[in-house]
Amino acid sequence: MAMQSRNSSLRNMVKTQYNQQHMGAAYGPYGQMTQAPQAETMRIDDVIVRTVALVAATFVAAILTYSMVADAFTTTALGETVITDQSAFNTAMTLGTIGMVVGLGIMIFSMFKPVTNPFVAFAYAIGQGLLLGGVSAFFETLWPGIVVNALLATILVFGAMLALYKFRILKNSPMFTKVIVGAGIGIFALTMINLVVGMFGMDLGLFAAPGESASALQWIIAIGITLWAAFSFILDFDMIEYSANNGAPKKYAWAGAFGLTAGLIFLYWNLLRLLSYFQSN
Predict the structure, then answer these.
(1) DSSP-derived 3-state class of residue 145
(2) Which residues contact 220 (CB under 8 A, 6 or more apart)?
(3) ∠ at Cα 18 (13, 22), nearest 5°?
């Protein structure tokens, strides 16, 4: 799964926001100045509502492929997991692959232009949900209960980071931004290289396969990426708050929601991987 460099969308959002909400110059007959209509600006509540909608779309799409994969597997008397419905499994794999391609394409697009179109945001959420559901079901067949634990861990980590930001225990700063953005670029490059190399049947040994014991290097990489996923929320919260306070257009609430949704999905993926390492060792 490629790293979700979702902060690009929010960085571009900040660059394009404006402080003056007036749509045009004053006008009116006989020198009477009539103010042009004001543009609608984004609020934090707008971001929250849109984030909930995108997460819900991800969850619904995930249920579809999760049920397909879950029904396709069964456990034998010897404790072995085998596929009993190859058609359902292949369909889930196809949907997951399409979702991965769509999600990766939109993520790359967001690096150059903020995602302010709700259709694009929902396409990403649904695509990621299709991929997430199938993979989660496969992990669940290997380690029952791992999906619920990963979901709970994602909620707890997100809530903890929100509380740390809310009470200003953790704050954004130019140095913090440089570290998070720089690390994000490095993680994205690393995972993309690993993905491309994997397409040619090679393995760099950066991530342990499901069921395999993780090496020290793989543990370090998994923990490091998970920590990055958690701390990058501070940057997201700060950008959203700054944009809302400085009059960004309302359409950019979708960019904020897209960033948070991508962050939650990416955090879940990495927590799921970490939990599988614990199960395999």
Answers:
(1) coil
(2) none
(3) 140
